[in-house]
Amino acid sequence: MRALERTAVRILSEHKPTLGSRRLKLKFNQAGFQVGRFKTRR
């Protein structure tokens, strides 16, 4: 699950907030939600 966090961070660093693409934000939010849900389970 750490790999998913790393890729999310890499995506965010690659696509700077100046782009402000909603699609990217949606993808990151979904990934963050999945990571959060996985962490709360354990």
Outline: flat
**Major sheet attributes:** none
- Structural class per helix/strand content? mainly alpha
Amino- and carboxy-terminal Cα gap: 12 Å
- Annotation field: number of helices: 2
- Report helical residue fraction: over 70%
Beta-strand segment tally = 0
**Overall pLDDT metric:** 68
Number of domains: 1
Question: What fraction of the residues are assigned to beta strands by DSSP?
Answer: under 5%
Instruction: Please state the CA-atom Rg, rounded to the nearest Å.
Output: 11 Å
Low-confidence parts, pLDDT < 50 over ≥5 residues?
A: none
Order of helices and strands: HH
Describe this structure in words.
This protein is mainly alpha-helical and 42 residues long. Helix content is 79%, strand content 0%. The protein has helices at residues 2-14, 22-41. Helix 1 runs antiparallel to helix 2. The longest helix is centred in the last third of the chain and has 20 residues, at 22-41. The protein is flat, with a radius of gyration of 11 Å.
